[in-house]
Specification:
Two copies of one chain form a homodimer. By secondary structure, chain A is of the alpha/beta class. Helices cover about 30% and strands about 20% of the residues of chain A. The first copy, chain A, starts with a strand and ends in a 9-residue tail after the last helix.
Chain lengths: ~400, ~400
């Protein structure tokens, strides 16, 4: 049995760019190590959910880990909250929160409270209250962002957002989308009013006003979702799983699946992340774990920025960082792919298929020695998210025979 | 956001023909415009339902429009009736009917009533009656054909046909296939008897007898199906859809999905159809619609005739007709494929996969510049019916992101 590393280059897939000579960043990049890995194994095209579906990183990773996103995904809140290290339980309702500035008429003056970047830990702590028997937990995130969790009986994610998404407009009242959402909508509205009472004269805001800054005097909620009960990854597949990921959304998701999160120095979830460390730690982690998911976010960041040259450079840095894999294919089954395309020409996720490679010692070689969106279409694989773990189990001698 | 045109060349897929030098009609055809479109986009193979399944035009089109034919298709009757312009409601039971000639012992003398081609409108009108509270609607079709609809409580499509499919045999009694079909079978049998009473001495038939023609003195029913409740196309996909199709079966299907039917002069559903008009109207229709389905039936007709040379010529005419697409790829996302294969060597539909291409400005090019059953297998796509609209939404910048 071999150990498994699944390397997800976030937002990897792209479309042709004129300034790269009609090539995609991956086609344009120098990538001798990735190409060498491709030539030693099997390549093809990959649809994280199904052809044409535009995945989020969260739904794509759920699908890749073998969870049907159409069944378990009910909104971004739970995954964001998990990523902030909040202790969630199945049935909790979680939201994405942001500290904002309102006037006394609840008109939004700044949706990001002047991009507040200090003191939100104290503000969040002050908002950990109980309303009508529902326990409310708030945890600060990056800048004005926060995770908000409701725990109690009779809650539902079927409620509307309160963020008007525009400054100069009043905060909206949460409404129930279905009968079972009424209690939750009511508690949201009470909580928002209460947050103004608590925050308006909080010492952090008194100080901000003194400094001429926007006070973070309210919290807005959106993206309600119920925390799903995922079958534990380790039990589902009979192997011990861990992840090395820079972004809270994905570490939260892996935690929800019961995987361990390995902290790696220098991992930032940005273009400056320390890729070499990620790869080295992943290989070292194979001593303690059977399966390690590694996500490198930088490719996606460059895609969202529409910067094809940067994306190409990042791919070249990845190519250099992954060199150690070449010496470990006797012990490791490696898959490299992405979770969705983020074409620089679109600056957002699309449903275009992604290149994928799987390699280990002794595997078939399908004779394609270029790893890019076009070359791999001549390869062996034409797979979907829910196939990934099965394929990795197979090529690591871990798959159980189904039948006799 | 771009507009979408989906061009279905009915029965497009084929098999090698000796008299075309071992090529399929599509391989043998000169088709510079189609090949140019292929070279500018992505190609591959397409299974309208799933690999090996032999689709009808109706089940294939349902699948292509994103409706699961295994769930919604219960027989051809409803689609034929819709194509005749009959006003159907979900829950109605519809049949394909044909006027026939029987003797007084109910032995079929001519299944097509001497290929009657006049007066069936009057005969059909005379058959609009009520039996046991069930409203029966009959509408004449081409020659001896008619649509028959039963409307009422407690009806079921689970009944046998009454057509013996052979002359010199008696009309069969309809039988219930399941318990819930008893009432419907009973009404069918009463209706058939009643139709003889009404038609035998109808003025149209008196006149026919005078002229030495077979009287259309009975109606036979087959292909019972319940009219399904389809989720409206426009709501399902958030776009306004229309179709340009020559055959009643498909316009009926599109109407059932809530799509508009665009009438185009010179469109016949035969090999002489005016393809140039279809394409021109489709492009013009993008002003008012987001999605236009265009079906060209002629390829299928040639396949059913087993005429590979004609099929090749028709493909060459299509190639010439579609030239205007080349100038509109900045505004239009185009897919070209078929609904099933109709190999000239088989003269009927088969479950062979079909070539497919999708093209628009800025899309990946997978480097295949020949559009035929074999060349496209080196391309990027390996898709099924239910993927089609998702892929088109993706490449027209209309797909909603699922997740974050």
């Amino acid at each position: 049995m071999k150990k498994i590393i699944l390397l997800i280059l976030d937002g990897l897939g792209d479309r042709p760019l004129d300034y790269l000579g009609g090539k995609t960043p991956l086609q344009a990049a120098k990538k001798k190590n990735i190409n060498r890995l491709a030539s030693m194994g099997m390549v093809g095209l990959f649809d994280p959910i199904s052809p044409g579906i535009r995945p989020g990183s969260d739904t794509a990773h759920l699908s890749i880990l073998g969870y049907d996103p159409f069944k378990v995904y009910t909104g971004r809140g739970p995954f964001e909250a998990l990523g902030l290290g909040m202790d969630l339980r199945p049935g909790d309702i979680a939201f994405r929160g942001n500290f904002a500035t309102v006037d006394s008429n609840m008109v939004v003056l700044d949706r990001r409270a002047g991009r507040i970047d200090k003191g939100t830990d104290e503000l969040a702590k002050a908002l950990n209250i109980v309303i009508d028997g529902v326990e409310i937990m708030v945890k600060e995130g990056v800048e004005h962002r926060a995770g908000v969790v409701f725990r109690g009986a009779g809650l539902s994610p079927n409620v509307t957002d309160v963020d008007p998404h525009e400054e100069g407009k009043s905060i909206l009242k949460a409404r129930a989308l279905t009968e079972d959402g009424k209690k939750t909508a009511d508690i949201i509205n009470k909580f928002i009013s209460k947050s103004y009472e608590i925050l308006e004269n909080h010492p952090v805001n008194k100080q901000r006003k003194k400094e001429g800054k926007m006070p973070a005097n309210i919290i807005m909620l959106r993206g309600a979702g119920i925390v799903p009960e995922l079958e534990g990854f380790n039990k589902k597949y009979g192997m011990k799983g861990a992840c090395i990921v820079g972004v809270p959304l994905l570490s939260g998701l892996c935690k929800l699946a019961g995987m361990d999160v390995i902290k790696v120095p220098g991992v930032t979830g940005t273009v400056n992340t320390n890729m070499e460390n990620k790869i080295r730690y992943a290989i070292e982690a194979t001593r303690d774990y059977d399966f390690i998911l590694v996500n490198i976010k930088a490719t996606d960041v460059a895609g969202h920025d529409g910067n094809g040259k940067l994306k190409k450079e990042i791919i070249e840095r990845v190519d250099s960082a992954i060199e150690p894999f070449l010496d470990n294919l006797d012990k490791i089954t490696l898959m490299i792919t992405g979770d969705h395309s983020t074409p620089c020409s679109v600056k957002d996720h699309t449903g275009d298929p992604l290149p994928v490679l799987v390699v280990t010692e002794g595997i078939r070689r399908d004779g394609i020695d270029e790893f890019d969106e076009v070359s791999v279409s001549r390869g062996s694989l034409r797979i979907r998210g829910h196939d990934v773990i099965n394929i990795l189990l197979n090529y690591s001698d871990r798959a159980e025979k189904f039948g006799a």
